[in-house]
Design brief:
The chain has two domains: 108 residues, no CATH class; 244 residues, 2-enoyl-CoA Hydratase, Chain A, domain 1 (Alpha-Beta Complex). Helices cover 51% and strands 14% of the residues. It contains nine helices and 15 strands. The chain is elongated and about 180 Å long.
Amino acid sequence: MHPRPLLRALALAFLVAAPVLAQSTRRVVVTGGTAPSAAPATGGSATGGGLPTPQPGPTTVAPGPGISREELTPEQKAAMKEVDRMRAEKARIDAELALADAKRTEELAPLNAEASKLIAERALRLAKANAEAAALEDERAKLERQAGLEAARSAARLTERNNKIRELEAEAKQLQLESANTVARLSNEIARYQKEDEARKVASKAKPKYLKDPLVDGTLYISDRRIAFNGAVTEPLADYVCQRINFYNNQSAEFPIFIVVDNSPGGSVAAGYQIQKAMAASKSPVYVVVKGFAASMTAVIATLAERSFCYPNTIILHHQVSNTMRGNMTVLKEQIEFTNRWFERLGTPVAKKMGLTLPDFVKQMYANDSTGDWQAFGEKAKELKWVDNVVERIEETAILDLLPPAQTTTVTVRPPQSEISGVTAKVDDKGRPYFELPALSNPFDAWWIYDPQGLFRAR
């Protein structure tokens, strides 16, 4: 048991026995068979608290006569017995505490020695650390001094270089001024030469011929009211042609407008129909001139023009509508039926001009060529009423210079095909060239184009 709970138990027992002992105020003498003898008032150990201690002789408690142990009441005897037991227990506890204290002192001795050793080692390490820190501080101060010296040297070199750069910049500005003067002088000379060369390329005494009837003695005179029409018929080409028809109408409605076809295999039926309607709505007459070749949709435009012209060796070709269709059987059938309605609407006026019905026109196509591609030179095309006039000479009276086209609304030269129609030249993975047609934005459109060699491919 721990010593502190034992001490608390002893103190509690003393408090219980104290009232019993206090009942007698007279001297108590406990005899053990001999004469009573005096005892000191405070007997026992130093920690007895003034309680009576049994002695070999009689015990006396003053004042009053002594009382033997036999005269004590049972409660007093029990209290005395408990006090004796508690004194013996206290003596045992004191001995155990002294022994425990000695053992604890013995156990703590190695720990105290180890603690002293650790304190000494810590002091030693702290001294070493302070010494190293002092050495590092000295090294840092040395490096700072070196860095400051190097910075001063670098600043001096930088200043020297900046001065050199300013000198070079001043020299460069001087050279630029001299070069600018030289370039300006050379530019003036070049401009003077260019103007002289341009003057030699301009037909200053010639002017476009504006004739209400442009066919004079077998010669066709084309003015600057001219629209270039080449390559596949596409929506961009239709926009280009229709815009210029409207412009020339607003400029003047007195003289004809010329659509000049060098070579065109046909193309989009919707775009071709748009061109036809613009020609029909024009206040000025719109004449179509075919110099080289016109097929499919372009041949329809030439045939249905108010007036058309061609050379004797010009080739005009009519055939049925063809299309690059794909899909299931139902889709193919629907596309064929819709394309056939396009052919009825655009082919019927051509057949009517020839004095035929559309079925007879188709029969004549295959009667003249097994593929249905009915082509004819200029004279035969005139007999078939595909063109109105065959001419030997065509004069382009609007070609008055050889200079690049100016940024004006009047077209003087033919722009590149791709800039107008949107058709681009490409090469496939086998190295074969072909022309890529732009996509048909009109979902009900179809290609009416002559392409036996497969040069035109839909995107």
